[in-house]
Design brief:
17 helices; disordered C terminus; globular; mainly alpha; 334 residues; single chain; 75% helix
């Protein structure tokens, strides 16, 4: 975990360098980076405080020996999670300065073609009319943040399989950096909900009506979307800002979660893949994503997982993986 932490620090340095070269904001950039990292860290700490009862129960579930051994690495996992999100947000908010958003017409056309001449958002809202959406939306807005922000922490305190820990740390970084930064730059797009604001016209006027009729426009989803567009227009860099549709990091993290739960237990695979299905559905229902954004994320994450299953990362020449995993107790020790 210490080397995972070191890798994330390098990612932050690279992120700041790229953003400074592209935006040419100098000291203002560094100040904003420090402020936003502090703010995000405070938010994570407040959420983590809610987990204290769970942490108090862990020694009895895991055994004191393994719990205390892993506890020494918990700080690295927590700080690395904050730093990772800071670096990711800075790069994500810089996408339109690197490559102007261009891919939406092609993605929208592909989406409609794949679904027999129908836009997936239309299908999702027809289905959503028969679902308890007030219960489902928190899965997208809140529940998803647990694996998205806390996977490294979960691996630190609740997993004893060195090879699995290494594999899912790599997949975690693959999702955020490769899908969320690199592919997002290559496929720069804003998604259906922002399509008309970017391209003009009324290609997704029906979506806006559906979002209003479902109450999403006047709720949390609408407020977040308004914030994202305002931040884009003002070229802001706050944590959580930045627009990017293809591929979907939400679905990528949900896929990662489902795969992890499946590895832990075949029974956990059921809620894991139900969670993935819910996130894929909600990513389209809320207008954030084309369905193809999620399909691509599922294929890429599952493909990367399948390839990594063939490699023992604890014996590779990736020192941050090998040594970080080696610091964990083995399954036999647990």
């Amino acid at each position: 975990m210490k080397h995972f932490f070191g890798f994330v620090l390098c990612y932050l340095a690279a992120s700041l360098l790229i953003v400074a070269l592209i935006r040419q904001q100098g000291s203002r950039l560094l100040l904003e980076a420090a402020v936003e990292t502090y703010n995000f860290g405070s938010t994570v700490a407040s959420v983590a405080a809610l987990m204290i009862p769970v942490l108090l129960a862990l020694p009895f579930v895991m055994g004191w020996r393994r719990f205390l051994s892993n506890l020494s690495l918990l700080g690295y996992a927590l700080i690395a999670s904050v730093v990772l999100q800071t670096a990711f947000s800075f790069l994500k908010s810089t996408i339109p300065a690197i490559v102007p958003f261009y891919a939406d017409p092609a993605l929208a056309a592909a989406d409609r073609w794949l679904h027999g001449g129908n836009d997936p958002w239309e299908i999702s809202h027809r289905i959503g009319a028969h679902l308890p959406m007030d219960w489902l939306l928190p899965v997208y807005l809140s529940v998803w943040t647990v694996p998205a922000l806390g996977l490294a922490v979960v691996l630190t305190v609740a997993d004893a399989d060195r090879e699995r820990i290494a594999r899912f740390l790599v997949l975690y970084l693959f999702c955020w950096i490769f899908l969320g930064n690199i592919l997002a730059i290559l496929g720069a797009s804003v998604g259906p909900v922002f399509y008309d604001a970017l391209e003009g016209g009324g290609r997704f006027a029906g979506l806006q009506v559906a979002l209003a009729q479902s109450g999403l426009t006047d709720g949390t989803v609408g407020a977040i979307q308004a914030y994202l567009w305002r931040s884009y227009a003002e070229q802001g860099m706050a944590i959580g800002s930045g627009i990017s549709a293809f591929p979907s990091v939400h679905v990528g993290i949900a896929t990662l979660t489902a795969l992890y739960l499946m590895e832990r237990s075949r029974w956990l695979a059921i809620p894991g893949f139900a969670f993935l299905a819910a996130i894929l559905f909600l990513s389209v229902y809320t207008g954030y994503h084309y369905a193809i954004d999620g399909y691509a994320s599922i294929v890429l994450m599952a493909g990367a997982w399948a390839m990594l299953r063939r490699v023992d990362l604890t014996t590779t020449d990736l020192p941050w993986v090998r040594r970080g995993a080696a610091a964990m107790p083995s399954a036999r020790q647990g």
